[in-house]
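#lab-general

N.A. 3:47 PM
ok so I finally got the sequence cleaned up, no stray characters, all 312 residues accounted for. can someone with queue access submit it? mine expired

B.Y. 3:52 PM
send it over

N.A. 3:53 PM
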Amino acid sequence: MGSFHYHAICRKQSKHNNRYFGGLAVLIKDKLKPYIKILNNTNPDYQWVLLQKNYFGFTEDLYICLVYFPPSCSAYTQRLDQDILDCIENDISKFQKQGKILLCGDFNARVSSEPDFIANDSSKFIPVNTDYTIDKELLTRKNQDKVLDTRGKDLLDLCISNQLRFLNGRVLGDMFGTYTCHTPNGSSTVDYVILSESILDQILYFKVSDFIPTLSDTHCKLEWEILATYKQENLFQDKNTHPLSPNFRWDDDSANNFLMALGSADIQTQLHNLNNKTTHNSQISVDDTCQELSNIIHLAALQIFKKTKNKQ
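B.Y. 4:20 PM
back already:
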């Protein structure tokens, strides 16, 4: 999988026992780090990350918000000065002017199968000089969780106001709205991926993975794939490589002739010397030995074969 850059977002230490409770973590593959920016953060319950359009082949930059929204009944939430959804919406209004939006994480909100768009939307009665984008008529979203709570209503209002749409229960891989959270009291859907309506067709799949107790106490992993056209850099550009051997003409007698060339006194002496050579357990020593063997085989081929001409 390669190496990763790790970025942690921690809440303040508890005054009671100086421990950290809750937080977020972002893992970015090292080779992608130059093209992904961790934006300045003012809240420990969410983190914005920017994917640059030029590298990933997007038409616009993609702003991803990683979210952990504590339960509304928790003491931590009760002490907050501002509602987390309000803070996120303020950021959305700013970033939407610069790119597309994707929200993901644990919202502790239950939205049932209520619509996240305006049905039968129309601009017929909108003044001509008003820039208004009509909501698309989308497939009805499925959800195994039939509960709609207060925070779920607020989350749906945020989606409708900003033309954001749920992936859960709507795209390939999760057409039935699988539960994302399992506790002794029952199952629910509280973890979501939500994104700008205009890039919904760029999602290749979305999946709620099976519950793994060693990965989380109650939550399932969410995974999805978005269409990108970036090109990976040459993984071998910093390594010493050797030019390809030239092509040789091959006919029915070539196999026997080549065996005879390998059995010649000169070639056998070189193979014997190579066999007696000590190869150390290092990359340089192994590469040198391989190159010597390649040179011997190449020399034998030169004795009997004719090179093919390069095509113009």
